[in-house]
Amino acid sequence: MSLRFYDTATAQVRDFVPLVEGKASLYYCGATVQGLPHVGHVRSAIAFDQLTRWLRYRGLQVTVVRNVTDIDDKILAKAADSVGAEPAPGVVPDEPWWALAYRFEQEFAKAYDTLGVQRPTYEPRATGHIPEMHALIAALIERGHAYPALDDSGDVYFDVRSWQKYGSLTRQNIDDMQAAPDAGPRGKRDPRDFALWKGHKEGEPDTASWDSPWGRGRPGWHLECSAMVTKYLGTEFDIHGGGLDLRFPHHENEMAQSQAAGHGFANFWMHNGMVTFEGEKMSKSIGNTISPTEMLEQASPRVVRYYLGQAHYRSVLDYRPTSLQEAASAVERIDGFITKAAAKADTAPAAVPDAFAAAMDDDLNVPQALAVLHDTVRAGNTALAAGDGAAVERALGEVRAMTSVLGLDDTADAAAAAGPADAALESLVQDRLAERKAARAAKDWARADAIRDALAAAGITVEDGADGVTWSVA
Prior knowledge:
single chain; four-stranded antiparallel sheet; 15 helices; 15% strand
């Protein structure tokens, strides 16, 4: 095994050697639950789900942590907007901030489950880790890297100029950076200093603040992740992941405050690329967006997962009106082979082909791995046509292994297909095929054709072959 991943911090593809032999620790940023999940959230979750699956396939015991940011300026603003609001999609009148956060957290969980994203080992909420945040702030103050605000607001800031490595993750000069937007500059030594703790302000709900040595308030966004990852993975761990848009300021600030506190923190930083709409950044203001819900209205979960996971995780994934149709065609080719091959050979997943493994080992090169998958499907279809049972069985085992690694077997539609409904459908179709076979034996061609047409109208494709009749859902 020779795993290699691109590390954002060093801008290099490096050999991945776990800090603890046989184990891997991964933290990736989850959602700020202020609204419904957007396509960027889901793409990121699928990318790190593919990474997790591959690490486990390679024999590592993987601990995955994905946080939930359930207290934030945006969440409080959304809840404030609901006061006295008329009922509208996504709006609950007079909804408390914590109820709004929980409601949208469930929407994220539903989207992840539907698309086959495995649940993390731990999924901590920010509001459940206030003591750990206080301890981290105290350590930073003691080390001279943080200070209470100079205006008695109750804020506490990280002193960016006290940490010489600040800006190293994104390779920026501190003097070229803009002011931190998370709090006004009045109580700061430098406008770029960012908030670790935010003093309670008039008009904010009392429930959105906690007692602290610096006054009643709530945590800053960047602090939350550092406190949670340290609790669950320790002060040094293997991989920190997230979307490319989080590199600055979020991940830059996370790294600075954690290392300034004396923590080794992440050994690798991995970032997934963004999703664009026909080459342009998605924007609600110009109407070129598509949500996971809209995608799932157009295609099955398996197709949506295939589309969102088909590009290299570091590249831009461009959405076009035909994208889901193309993904559906690819999935149909895979499923068509599996259906026909399974009727000839019943085999469990085998080892993945060497070429597939080499692609995944090389910075999780999913596009190249998918090319191997489709080559195997083509070879399997050739073996079916030639009646080569051994080759069919080998290809089927490899295809099942590859689809499992890519998570295509764990989506909502794949799970449903393995349930009682699938068995019922199989029984009904086989009854109709038996009637058709009897009609053909009696040379009642009109009756046989009528049965085939009725099945086709129901979305069932019937294929007559040298070895008998097979069927599939169109």
